[in-house]
Amino acid sequence: MKTRASAAKVLYQVVDRGQSLTTALPIAQQLLPAKDRALLQEICYGVLRWLPRLEFMSRQLMSKPLIGKQRPVHFLILVGLYQLKYMRIPAHAAVAETVNAIKVLKSPKLSGLVNAILRNYQRQQDDLETLADGNDACKFGHPGWLIKRIKAAYPKQWQAVLMANNERPPMWIRVNQQHHSQADYQALLAADEIVAEIVESADSALRLEKPTDVYKLAGFAEGHSSVQDGAAQFAAQFLDAQPGELVLDACAAPGGKTAHILERQPALKHLVAVDFDATRLARVQENLTRMQLEAELIHGDASKPEDWWQGDKFDRILLDAPCSATGVIRRHPDIKWLRRDSDIAPLVQLQAEILDAMWQQLKPGGTLLYATCSILPAENSEQISSFVARTPDAVLVPLNANSNDQAFSWQILPNTQGMDGFFYAKLQKKA
Questions:
Q1: Catalytic annotation, residues
Q2: N or C: which end of the chain has fewer CB within 10 A?
Q3: Could you list the residue range(s) of the whole structural domain that residue 19 is in?
Q4: Structural domain includes residue 156
Q5: 31 phi and psi angles, rounded to 5 deg
Q6: Are residues 370 and 409 in the same domain?
Q7: Same domain, 56 and 182
Q8: What's the N-to-C CA distance of the chain in angstroms?
Q9: 144-179: pLDDT as tens digits
Q10: Are 56 and 132 in contact, with CB atoms under 8 Å apart?
Q11: What SS3 state is found at 247?
Protein backbone atom coordinates (compact mmCIF):
# COMPACT_ATOMS: atom_id res chain seq x y z
CA MET A 1 0.00 0.00 0.00
CA LYS A 2 2.63 2.52 1.08
CA THR A 3 4.92 1.51 -1.81
CA ARG A 4 2.24 2.38 -4.39
CA ALA A 5 1.55 5.71 -2.73
CA SER A 6 5.28 6.46 -2.66
CA ALA A 7 5.50 5.65 -6.36
CA ALA A 8 2.64 8.04 -7.12
CA LYS A 9 4.39 10.80 -5.17
CA VAL A 10 7.71 10.22 -6.96
CA LEU A 11 6.02 10.26 -10.36
CA TYR A 12 4.23 13.47 -9.46
CA GLN A 13 7.55 15.07 -8.48
CA VAL A 14 9.19 13.98 -11.74
CA VAL A 15 6.46 14.52 -14.32
CA ASP A 16 4.60 17.51 -12.87
CA ARG A 17 7.36 19.20 -10.88
CA GLY A 18 10.34 18.48 -13.14
CA GLN A 19 12.51 16.78 -10.52
CA SER A 20 14.96 14.15 -11.75
CA LEU A 21 14.27 10.53 -10.89
CA THR A 22 17.80 10.18 -9.48
CA THR A 23 16.87 12.87 -6.94
CA ALA A 24 13.28 11.90 -6.12
CA LEU A 25 13.56 8.10 -5.98
CA PRO A 26 16.35 7.66 -3.37
CA ILE A 27 14.56 10.02 -0.98
CA ALA A 28 11.39 7.94 -1.25
CA GLN A 29 13.29 4.65 -0.95
CA GLN A 30 14.84 5.73 2.35
CA LEU A 31 11.35 6.10 3.82
CA LEU A 32 10.42 2.49 2.97
CA PRO A 33 11.55 -0.84 4.43
CA ALA A 34 14.47 -2.32 2.47
CA LYS A 35 12.27 -5.15 1.18
CA ASP A 36 9.98 -2.68 -0.65
CA ARG A 37 12.60 -0.51 -2.35
CA ALA A 38 13.08 -2.67 -5.44
CA LEU A 39 9.32 -2.71 -6.07
CA LEU A 40 9.20 1.08 -5.79
CA GLN A 41 12.01 1.39 -8.32
CA GLU A 42 10.40 -1.08 -10.72
CA ILE A 43 7.08 0.78 -10.66
CA CYS A 44 8.62 4.25 -11.07
CA TYR A 45 10.92 3.21 -13.91
CA GLY A 46 8.15 1.24 -15.59
CA VAL A 47 5.56 4.02 -15.51
CA LEU A 48 8.10 6.49 -16.90
CA ARG A 49 9.05 4.07 -19.68
CA TRP A 50 5.43 3.68 -20.76
CA LEU A 51 3.97 7.00 -19.65
CA PRO A 52 2.14 7.93 -22.91
CA ARG A 53 0.48 4.53 -23.10
CA LEU A 54 -0.66 4.60 -19.49
CA GLU A 55 -1.84 8.21 -19.82
CA PHE A 56 -3.82 7.20 -22.90
CA MET A 57 -5.49 4.35 -21.00
CA SER A 58 -6.41 6.61 -18.10
CA ARG A 59 -7.94 9.20 -20.45
CA GLN A 60 -10.08 6.53 -22.11
CA LEU A 61 -11.36 5.37 -18.74
CA MET A 62 -12.08 8.76 -17.11
CA SER A 63 -14.76 11.32 -17.88
CA LYS A 64 -12.55 14.21 -16.76
CA PRO A 65 -8.90 14.53 -15.68
CA LEU A 66 -7.73 14.85 -12.10
CA ILE A 67 -6.15 18.25 -11.53
CA GLY A 68 -4.55 20.32 -8.78
CA LYS A 69 -4.23 18.53 -5.46
CA GLN A 70 -5.68 15.39 -7.05
CA ARG A 71 -2.68 14.92 -9.37
CA PRO A 72 -0.91 12.38 -7.10
CA VAL A 73 -4.05 10.24 -7.40
CA HIS A 74 -3.77 10.50 -11.19
CA PHE A 75 -0.30 9.00 -10.92
CA LEU A 76 -1.60 6.34 -8.54
CA ILE A 77 -4.00 5.28 -11.30
CA LEU A 78 -1.03 4.97 -13.67
CA VAL A 79 0.74 2.88 -11.02
CA GLY A 80 -2.25 0.54 -10.94
CA LEU A 81 -2.46 0.29 -14.73
CA TYR A 82 1.26 -0.44 -14.95
CA GLN A 83 0.96 -3.33 -12.51
CA LEU A 84 -1.98 -4.82 -14.40
CA LYS A 85 -0.32 -4.50 -17.81
CA TYR A 86 3.37 -5.18 -17.15
CA MET A 87 3.91 -6.88 -13.78
CA ARG A 88 3.38 -10.40 -12.52
CA ILE A 89 1.54 -9.26 -9.42
CA PRO A 90 -1.87 -11.01 -9.26
CA ALA A 91 -4.51 -8.63 -10.62
CA HIS A 92 -6.67 -8.74 -7.49
CA ALA A 93 -3.68 -7.84 -5.32
CA ALA A 94 -2.56 -5.05 -7.65
CA VAL A 95 -6.04 -3.49 -7.60
CA ALA A 96 -6.55 -3.88 -3.84
CA GLU A 97 -3.13 -2.49 -2.89
CA THR A 98 -3.49 0.44 -5.28
CA VAL A 99 -6.98 1.35 -4.03
CA ASN A 100 -5.80 1.10 -0.42
CA ALA A 101 -2.93 3.47 -1.19
CA ILE A 102 -5.54 6.24 -1.53
CA LYS A 103 -5.53 6.41 2.28
CA VAL A 104 -1.83 7.30 2.32
CA LEU A 105 -2.50 10.04 -0.25
CA LYS A 106 -5.32 11.30 2.00
CA SER A 107 -7.92 11.26 -0.78
CA PRO A 108 -10.37 8.59 0.49
CA LYS A 109 -13.27 10.02 -1.54
CA LEU A 110 -11.47 8.97 -4.73
CA SER A 111 -11.05 5.30 -3.79
CA GLY A 112 -14.23 4.35 -5.68
CA LEU A 113 -12.98 6.12 -8.80
CA VAL A 114 -9.60 4.40 -8.70
CA ASN A 115 -11.23 1.01 -8.17
CA ALA A 116 -13.67 1.55 -11.05
CA ILE A 117 -10.95 2.65 -13.48
CA LEU A 118 -8.75 -0.37 -12.75
CA ARG A 119 -11.70 -2.78 -12.95
CA ASN A 120 -12.85 -1.25 -16.24
CA TYR A 121 -9.33 -1.54 -17.63
CA GLN A 122 -9.40 -5.26 -16.86
CA ARG A 123 -12.68 -5.64 -18.73
CA GLN A 124 -11.65 -3.51 -21.73
CA GLN A 125 -7.94 -4.32 -21.83
CA ASP A 126 -7.73 -5.94 -25.27
CA ASP A 127 -9.67 -3.15 -27.01
CA LEU A 128 -7.72 -0.42 -25.23
CA GLU A 129 -4.35 -2.00 -26.08
CA THR A 130 -5.29 -2.27 -29.75
CA LEU A 131 -6.37 1.37 -29.75
CA ALA A 132 -3.12 2.46 -28.12
CA ASP A 133 -1.01 0.64 -30.70
CA GLY A 134 -2.34 2.98 -33.37
CA ASN A 135 -0.37 5.87 -31.89
CA ASP A 136 3.45 5.95 -32.08
CA ALA A 137 3.87 7.78 -28.75
CA CYS A 138 1.77 5.11 -27.02
CA LYS A 139 3.29 2.21 -28.93
CA PHE A 140 6.91 3.19 -28.28
CA GLY A 141 6.64 5.16 -25.03
CA HIS A 142 8.34 8.36 -26.26
CA PRO A 143 7.25 11.98 -26.74
CA GLY A 144 6.34 12.94 -30.29
CA TRP A 145 9.20 15.42 -30.76
CA LEU A 146 11.81 12.80 -29.89
CA ILE A 147 10.24 10.16 -32.12
CA LYS A 148 10.34 12.68 -34.98
CA ARG A 149 14.05 13.41 -34.44
CA ILE A 150 15.01 9.73 -34.12
CA LYS A 151 12.96 8.82 -37.22
CA ALA A 152 14.75 11.51 -39.22
CA ALA A 153 18.19 10.44 -37.99
CA TYR A 154 17.71 6.68 -38.30
CA PRO A 155 14.97 5.99 -40.87
CA LYS A 156 15.70 2.24 -40.97
CA GLN A 157 16.45 1.76 -37.27
CA TRP A 158 14.18 4.18 -35.43
CA GLN A 159 11.79 1.54 -34.08
CA ALA A 160 14.67 -0.60 -32.79
CA VAL A 161 16.21 2.46 -31.09
CA LEU A 162 12.92 3.36 -29.39
CA MET A 163 12.34 -0.19 -28.20
CA ALA A 164 15.93 -0.44 -26.92
CA ASN A 165 15.29 2.70 -24.85
CA ASN A 166 12.54 0.83 -23.00
CA GLU A 167 14.63 -2.24 -22.16
CA ARG A 168 16.31 -2.88 -18.84
CA PRO A 169 20.03 -2.26 -19.36
CA PRO A 170 22.65 -4.80 -18.32
CA MET A 171 25.17 -4.06 -15.59
CA TRP A 172 28.68 -3.41 -16.88
CA ILE A 173 31.94 -3.60 -14.97
CA ARG A 174 35.21 -1.84 -15.74
CA VAL A 175 38.15 -3.94 -14.61
CA ASN A 176 41.04 -1.97 -13.13
CA GLN A 177 43.86 -3.50 -15.14
CA GLN A 178 46.44 -2.32 -12.63
CA HIS A 179 45.05 -5.18 -10.54
CA HIS A 180 43.51 -7.76 -12.91
CA SER A 181 43.12 -8.66 -16.56
CA GLN A 182 39.59 -9.03 -17.95
CA ALA A 183 39.93 -12.82 -17.94
CA ASP A 184 41.34 -12.99 -14.41
CA TYR A 185 38.57 -10.80 -13.01
CA GLN A 186 35.96 -12.78 -14.92
CA ALA A 187 37.28 -15.90 -13.17
CA LEU A 188 37.13 -14.18 -9.77
CA LEU A 189 33.49 -13.30 -10.39
CA ALA A 190 32.73 -16.84 -11.56
CA ALA A 191 34.14 -18.17 -8.28
CA ASP A 192 31.46 -16.07 -6.55
CA GLU A 193 28.81 -17.38 -8.97
CA ILE A 194 28.59 -14.08 -10.86
CA VAL A 195 28.44 -14.71 -14.60
CA ALA A 196 30.20 -12.09 -16.75
CA GLU A 197 30.99 -11.91 -20.46
CA ILE A 198 34.12 -10.37 -21.96
CA VAL A 199 33.40 -7.81 -24.68
CA GLU A 200 36.43 -7.90 -26.95
CA SER A 201 36.16 -4.37 -28.38
CA ALA A 202 36.29 -2.70 -24.94
CA ASP A 203 39.54 -3.77 -23.35
CA SER A 204 38.50 -3.37 -19.70
CA ALA A 205 34.81 -4.29 -19.91
CA LEU A 206 32.74 -7.14 -18.54
CA ARG A 207 28.97 -7.39 -19.07
CA LEU A 208 27.16 -9.15 -16.24
CA GLU A 209 24.46 -11.70 -16.95
CA LYS A 210 22.33 -10.07 -14.24
CA PRO A 211 22.82 -7.07 -11.94
CA THR A 212 24.41 -7.62 -8.54
CA ASP A 213 25.27 -5.66 -5.41
CA VAL A 214 28.54 -3.84 -6.11
CA TYR A 215 30.00 -4.97 -2.80
CA LYS A 216 29.66 -8.58 -3.96
CA LEU A 217 32.19 -7.78 -6.71
CA ALA A 218 35.66 -9.01 -5.79
CA GLY A 219 37.83 -6.15 -4.57
CA PHE A 220 35.28 -3.45 -5.38
CA ALA A 221 35.86 -1.51 -2.15
CA GLU A 222 39.61 -1.57 -2.85
CA GLY A 223 39.19 -0.17 -6.36
CA HIS A 224 39.70 -3.36 -8.35
CA SER A 225 36.59 -2.66 -10.44
CA SER A 226 33.94 -0.02 -11.11
CA VAL A 227 30.44 0.10 -12.55
CA GLN A 228 30.50 1.81 -15.95
CA ASP A 229 28.58 1.13 -19.14
CA GLY A 230 30.60 -0.42 -21.93
CA ALA A 231 30.07 2.56 -24.25
CA ALA A 232 31.52 5.01 -21.73
CA GLN A 233 34.60 2.82 -21.33
CA PHE A 234 35.77 3.67 -24.85
CA ALA A 235 36.54 7.24 -23.74
CA ALA A 236 39.84 6.43 -22.03
CA GLN A 237 40.61 3.79 -24.65
CA PHE A 238 40.23 6.24 -27.57
CA LEU A 239 41.93 9.10 -25.70
CA ASP A 240 44.97 6.81 -25.35
CA ALA A 241 46.95 9.06 -22.99
CA GLN A 242 50.71 8.47 -23.00
CA PRO A 243 53.40 8.62 -20.27
CA GLY A 244 54.49 12.11 -19.28
CA GLU A 245 51.48 13.87 -20.80
CA LEU A 246 49.37 16.67 -19.32
CA VAL A 247 45.72 15.61 -19.65
CA LEU A 248 42.41 17.43 -19.06
CA ASP A 249 39.10 15.71 -18.38
CA ALA A 250 36.54 18.44 -19.08
CA CYS A 251 33.01 18.02 -17.66
CA ALA A 252 34.46 15.17 -15.60
CA ALA A 253 31.73 14.28 -13.07
CA PRO A 254 30.98 11.72 -11.76
CA GLY A 255 34.55 10.63 -12.45
CA GLY A 256 34.36 7.21 -14.06
CA LYS A 257 36.29 8.33 -17.13
CA THR A 258 38.77 10.29 -14.99
CA ALA A 259 39.60 7.15 -13.03
CA HIS A 260 39.79 5.03 -16.18
CA ILE A 261 42.34 7.41 -17.77
CA LEU A 262 44.53 7.07 -14.66
CA GLU A 263 44.09 3.29 -14.50
CA ARG A 264 45.18 2.91 -18.11
CA GLN A 265 48.10 5.32 -17.84
CA PRO A 266 49.56 5.69 -14.33
CA ALA A 267 52.65 7.52 -15.68
CA LEU A 268 50.92 10.76 -16.71
CA LYS A 269 52.65 14.02 -15.88
CA HIS A 270 49.38 15.33 -14.43
CA LEU A 271 45.62 14.96 -14.86
CA VAL A 272 43.21 17.85 -14.32
CA ALA A 273 39.47 17.16 -13.95
CA VAL A 274 37.05 20.08 -14.14
CA ASP A 275 33.29 20.26 -13.63
CA PHE A 276 30.75 23.06 -13.20
CA ASP A 277 28.70 21.16 -10.60
CA ALA A 278 30.41 21.22 -7.20
CA THR A 279 28.20 18.45 -5.79
CA ARG A 280 28.98 16.13 -8.69
CA LEU A 281 32.66 17.09 -8.50
CA ALA A 282 32.68 15.72 -4.96
CA ARG A 283 31.65 12.37 -6.44
CA VAL A 284 34.75 12.47 -8.65
CA GLN A 285 36.87 12.68 -5.50
CA GLU A 286 34.90 9.83 -3.90
CA ASN A 287 35.57 7.63 -6.94
CA LEU A 288 39.26 8.51 -7.06
CA THR A 289 39.65 7.86 -3.32
CA ARG A 290 38.12 4.39 -3.63
CA MET A 291 40.36 3.65 -6.62
CA GLN A 292 43.41 5.03 -4.76
CA LEU A 293 44.07 7.47 -7.61
CA GLU A 294 44.95 11.16 -7.66
CA ALA A 295 44.04 14.07 -9.93
CA GLU A 296 43.71 17.84 -9.61
CA LEU A 297 40.00 18.64 -9.29
CA ILE A 298 38.77 22.09 -10.29
CA HIS A 299 35.29 23.56 -9.85
CA GLY A 300 34.92 25.59 -13.03
CA ASP A 301 33.10 26.29 -16.29
CA ALA A 302 34.64 24.42 -19.23
CA SER A 303 33.48 27.18 -21.59
CA LYS A 304 35.60 29.72 -19.63
CA PRO A 305 38.95 28.02 -18.93
CA GLU A 306 40.67 31.38 -18.52
CA ASP A 307 38.89 31.63 -15.14
CA TRP A 308 40.52 28.49 -13.74
CA TRP A 309 43.58 27.51 -15.78
CA GLN A 310 46.76 29.49 -16.32
CA GLY A 311 49.08 26.50 -16.73
CA ASP A 312 50.60 24.83 -19.78
CA LYS A 313 48.43 23.77 -22.68
CA PHE A 314 47.28 20.16 -22.62
CA ASP A 315 48.57 17.20 -24.63
CA ARG A 316 45.15 15.54 -24.58
CA ILE A 317 41.66 16.67 -23.66
CA LEU A 318 38.61 14.52 -23.09
CA LEU A 319 35.47 16.60 -23.63
CA ASP A 320 32.44 14.62 -22.51
CA ALA A 321 30.11 17.47 -23.39
CA PRO A 322 26.79 18.39 -21.73
CA CYS A 323 24.08 16.88 -23.91
CA SER A 324 20.47 15.72 -24.18
CA ALA A 325 21.42 12.30 -22.71
CA THR A 326 19.15 10.65 -25.28
CA GLY A 327 21.54 7.69 -25.43
CA VAL A 328 20.96 6.71 -21.80
CA ILE A 329 17.15 6.81 -21.65
CA ARG A 330 16.96 3.13 -20.73
CA ARG A 331 18.89 3.98 -17.53
CA HIS A 332 17.11 7.30 -16.96
CA PRO A 333 13.58 7.09 -18.43
CA ASP A 334 12.66 10.46 -16.91
CA ILE A 335 14.85 12.07 -19.60
CA LYS A 336 11.98 11.57 -22.04
CA TRP A 337 9.72 13.79 -19.95
CA LEU A 338 12.23 16.30 -18.55
CA ARG A 339 13.71 17.19 -21.97
CA ARG A 340 11.97 19.40 -24.53
CA ASP A 341 12.61 19.82 -28.23
CA SER A 342 13.46 23.45 -27.46
CA ASP A 343 16.35 22.29 -25.22
CA ILE A 344 18.40 20.91 -28.11
CA ALA A 345 19.45 24.14 -29.84
CA PRO A 346 20.82 25.74 -26.61
CA LEU A 347 22.70 22.52 -25.85
CA VAL A 348 24.24 22.52 -29.32
CA GLN A 349 25.30 26.14 -28.80
CA LEU A 350 26.84 25.34 -25.40
CA GLN A 351 28.72 22.37 -26.84
CA ALA A 352 30.12 24.58 -29.59
CA GLU A 353 31.26 27.19 -27.05
CA ILE A 354 33.00 24.55 -24.92
CA LEU A 355 34.62 22.96 -27.98
CA ASP A 356 36.03 26.32 -29.08
CA ALA A 357 37.26 27.12 -25.56
CA MET A 358 38.86 23.71 -25.03
CA TRP A 359 40.58 23.89 -28.41
CA GLN A 360 42.45 26.98 -27.22
CA GLN A 361 43.80 24.95 -24.27
CA LEU A 362 45.18 22.18 -26.52
CA LYS A 363 48.81 22.35 -27.59
CA PRO A 364 49.76 22.02 -31.29
CA GLY A 365 49.92 18.33 -32.16
CA GLY A 366 47.57 17.55 -29.26
CA THR A 367 44.43 15.40 -29.32
CA LEU A 368 40.85 16.23 -28.29
CA LEU A 369 38.31 13.44 -27.92
CA TYR A 370 34.72 14.71 -28.16
CA ALA A 371 32.07 12.53 -26.53
CA THR A 372 28.37 12.68 -25.71
CA CYS A 373 25.77 10.23 -24.43
CA SER A 374 23.38 11.53 -27.10
CA ILE A 375 22.08 9.89 -30.26
CA LEU A 376 21.00 13.14 -31.95
CA PRO A 377 23.11 14.16 -34.99
CA ALA A 378 22.81 17.87 -34.11
CA GLU A 379 24.91 17.23 -31.00
CA ASN A 380 27.25 14.75 -32.61
CA SER A 381 28.19 14.40 -36.29
CA GLU A 382 26.74 17.79 -37.23
CA GLN A 383 28.44 19.46 -34.25
CA ILE A 384 31.83 18.07 -35.26
CA SER A 385 31.35 18.92 -38.94
CA SER A 386 30.59 22.53 -37.98
CA PHE A 387 33.61 22.67 -35.68
CA VAL A 388 36.03 21.36 -38.30
CA ALA A 389 34.59 23.76 -40.89
CA ARG A 390 35.27 26.81 -38.68
CA THR A 391 38.58 25.62 -37.19
CA PRO A 392 41.44 25.64 -39.73
CA ASP A 393 43.92 23.80 -37.49
CA ALA A 394 41.51 20.95 -36.59
CA VAL A 395 41.69 17.62 -38.38
CA LEU A 396 39.73 14.44 -37.71
CA VAL A 397 41.90 11.40 -36.94
CA PRO A 398 41.06 7.69 -36.45
CA LEU A 399 39.53 6.88 -33.08
CA ASN A 400 41.66 3.79 -32.70
CA ALA A 401 45.08 4.18 -34.30
CA ASN A 402 45.95 0.55 -33.53
CA SER A 403 42.95 -0.93 -35.33
CA ASN A 404 42.17 -1.80 -38.93
CA ASP A 405 39.03 0.30 -38.47
CA GLN A 406 40.15 3.83 -39.29
CA ALA A 407 36.82 5.54 -38.51
CA PHE A 408 37.08 9.16 -37.30
CA SER A 409 33.83 8.97 -35.33
CA TRP A 410 31.44 6.39 -33.95
CA GLN A 411 27.74 6.72 -33.18
CA ILE A 412 26.83 3.89 -30.82
CA LEU A 413 23.08 3.25 -30.74
CA PRO A 414 21.36 1.93 -27.61
CA ASN A 415 21.72 -1.83 -27.11
CA THR A 416 24.68 -2.20 -29.50
CA GLN A 417 26.35 -5.15 -27.71
CA GLY A 418 24.13 -4.20 -24.77
CA MET A 419 25.68 -0.73 -24.51
CA ASP A 420 24.20 2.73 -24.01
CA GLY A 421 23.95 5.21 -26.86
CA PHE A 422 27.15 7.23 -27.20
CA PHE A 423 29.14 9.29 -29.70
CA TYR A 424 32.87 9.75 -30.16
CA ALA A 425 34.96 11.85 -32.53
CA LYS A 426 38.72 12.39 -32.35
CA LEU A 427 40.41 15.62 -33.40
CA GLN A 428 44.06 16.60 -33.68
CA LYS A 429 45.47 20.11 -33.65
CA LYS A 430 47.84 20.72 -36.54
CA ALA A 431 51.39 21.31 -35.33
A1: 373
A2: C
A3: 2-135
A4: no
A5: -90, 0
A6: yes
A7: no
A8: 66
A9: 999 999 999 999 999 999 999 999 999 999 999 999
A10: yes
A11: strand
